[in-house]
Amino acid sequence: MWKDKLLVEYTCNLCGIVRAKVALPYRDEKEPITDWMEIHVMTAVARDHDIRSPNCPAKKISELWIPTVGVQWIGGPPIE
Ligand SMILES: [Zn+2]
Predict the structure, then answer these.
(1) Residue 50 domain-assigned?
(2) pLDDT band at 64, cuts 50/70/90?
């Protein structure tokens, strides 16, 4: 189901979400990681958090996990 997607997980201590999974497109190797983090990861996580906890006042999530084991670059696809 998530074949072509990267799954990141986040935790929000304020509303009690623990390691919710968010699927993202893989980062292009040429895309700067700071851009990718801000534009794709943080936007997707914030949107997911809003949907799950529309009344949570948290402006930032508490913890974020990005899988790096078995991937070619951070945010990239797994090595076959
Ligand atoms: Zn929250």
Answers:
(1) yes
(2) very high
Q: Is residue 79 part of a domain?
A: no
pLDDT digits (tens, 9 = 90+) for 3-48: 568 899 999 999 999 999 999 988 988 999 999 999 899 999 999 9
Residue 37 is part of which domain span? Answer: 5-65
54 CA to centre of ligand 1 in angstroms: 8
**Residue 8 C-alpha to ligand 1 middle, in angstroms?**
16
Q: Distances in Å between the alpha carbon of 4 and those of 14, 23, 68, 73, 77?
A: 31, 9, 15, 15, 8
